[in-house]
Amino acid sequence: MKTIRVTGSGSASAPVDHVVLRFDVAAQEMDYEEAVNALNEQVAQLRRDVEIAGAPLDEMKTTSFSVDAQHHWDSDDKESVFYGYRASHNLTLGFGWDQDLLNALLRQIAAGGSCADLNIMFTVSDQDALQRMALADAVHSARTRAEILAEAAGVKLGDLQSIEHAWSEVRFSHSPIAYSMEEAAGAPMASVEPEDIDASDTATLVWEIRAERARAL
User: Fold this and answer.
1) Domain CATH for 168
2) DSSP code string of 120-140
3) For each successive 10 residues of the chain (217 residues), what is the average pLDDT?
4) pLDDT recorded at residue 189
5) Could you give the number of structural domains in the chain?
6) 3-state helix, strand, coil in the chain (%, to 5)
7) Structural domain of residue 50, as residue ranges?
8) 33: alpha, beta or left, given left = phi > 0 and alpha = psi -120 to 50?
9) pLDDT number for residue 72
10) Is the same domain home to 41 and 87?
11) Residue 31 parent element (H or E)
């Protein structure tokens, strides 16, 4: 049995309906306990700011926490010099896309003194639906290409023999923004219009090919 194997590429897009804020809060002190206490105070302030702004505090989650001893190399004395402990706490906060809420949150955090570094990522809440759309487009693309190739070669597509797809191939395009809290304090908020979120995927399909019947004279 002769076959034709074709890979199709598909894409889909959807408007942003969800925003994820990623916070990096850090404190450094010479004493371990003082570093942790200072960090905890900053995180507590950040949580208060989130609540005051009206954002969903229960959606604020810790992604990592660490305390590391800091050293630098003294080239004169040829030795490693300890210069304190750096405590770091990373958190995320997600909520439905709302320009007014985002602006209120940024203003409050900028004025609150938590000294948090912030990255903003726009996304879609139902990535599975976007993935399905991209995959369906990939299958349609493969079918269209196979039909074009078969027609050009003078054969017909027969039964579909197999479909191959690697789920890890799905790609989502997000729009991360780094935001300076120091610059935001007292400054007017920008009107943000996030780009649509794009997804892409591929699928490989194999069809049986059959010879065209000879036309009657």
Assistant:
1) 3.30.110.170
2) EEEE-S-HHHHHHHHHHHHHH
3) 95 94 96 98 97 96 97 84 95 95 93 91 92 96 97 94 79 63 60 86 96 59
4) 61
5) 2
6) 35, 45, 20
7) 18-123
8) alpha
9) 87
10) yes
11) none
